[in-house]
Amino acid sequence: MFLIALFIERIVEVFLTTCRAAGAQDLEIQAKEAGGNTSAKRKLAQYKSRSQRIAFLIATAVGVLVSAPGIRMLELFVDPAVFENLEQTQRSLFMITDVLFTGAVLGGGADGLHKLVQVFTNFMDSTAELAKKRRDRA
Predict the structure, then answer these.
(1) Helix (H), strand (E) at residue 128
(2) Which of 36, 64, 73, 110 has the fewest CB atoms nearer than 10 Å to its CB?
């Protein structure tokens, strides 16, 4: 997943830079020429903020497209035997949720994915440590 997120980030960077870099450069020049003019700086900040939103939307869409055929995160935690016993509606809703969740995580980028994995790893480590302390007391 980390590699996929890196590829998506690079793809978005290439396309977004092609479309929006000239506008950002123009606004940066205007902001430098304006000196302390906060209006020019505000326009530049708004432009960059819009670029970030566009990048996230594109990355999330690409993430959903990548996860739709079968590269998903939540299904890794589901027992296939139990999953097969669910009603078709429940399986479909789970798969849709999984595709959207995975797409959003991939759209968040490699750093976001790293943080998500780190939270899960920290939780598992603290749970194992707590279990060990309880076992040692017994």
Answers:
(1) helix 109-137
(2) 36
